[in-house]
């Protein structure tokens, strides 16, 4: 894969995104960079007897509670769960820093 960008008159070319070695060229200067090893292979295994059961329990949990989501949708549909669109918009704007 090759990505080319032009910024302030200097041409930048990045190649070898899927290879373990990448070559970056900026104008006439070329630099070869060794890609970092995969994080999973360098990460130490959990060795604490306390953390291992917690890690297994966390891995067994679903990404979200589908039952709770269905319950909240039903309450919204019935009008039994208050919804303030203005408040939600404000929270979204605050979270994203008001950037457009």
TrEMBL record:
Anti-sigma-28 factor FlgM C-terminal domain mapped to chain residues: 50-89
The UniProt record lists the keyword Repressor: yes
Highest taxon, organism lineage: Bacteria
Record keywords: Bacterial flagellum biogenesis, Cell projection, Cilium, Flagellum, Repressor, Transcription, Transcription regulation
Entry coiled-coil feature ranges: none
Keyword NADP: no
UniProt xrefs under InterPro entries: Anti-sigma-28_factor_FlgM_sf, FlgM, FlgM_C
Job of this protein: Responsible for the coupling of flagellin expression to flagellar assembly by preventing expression of the flagellin genes when a component of the middle class of proteins is defective. It negatively regulates flagellar genes by inhibiting the activity of FliA by directly binding to FliA.
Family, similarity comment: Belongs to the FlgM family.
Protein's name according to its UniProt entry: Negative regulator of flagellin synthesis
Species of the source: Massilia agri
GN (gene name): flgM
């Amino acid at each position: 894969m090759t990505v080319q960008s032009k910024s302030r008159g200097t041409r930048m070319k990045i190649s070898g995104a899927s290879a373990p070695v990448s070559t970056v060229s900026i104008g006439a200067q070329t630099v070869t960079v060794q890609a970092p090893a995969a994080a999973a292979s360098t990460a130490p295994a959990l060795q604490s007897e306390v953390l291992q059961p917690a890690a297994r329990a966390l891995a067994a949990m679903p990404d979200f509670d589908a039952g709770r989501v269905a319950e909240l949708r039903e309450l919204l549909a019935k009008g039994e769960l208050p919804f303030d669109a203005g408040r939600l918009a404000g929270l979204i704007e605050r979270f994203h820093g008001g950037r457009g």
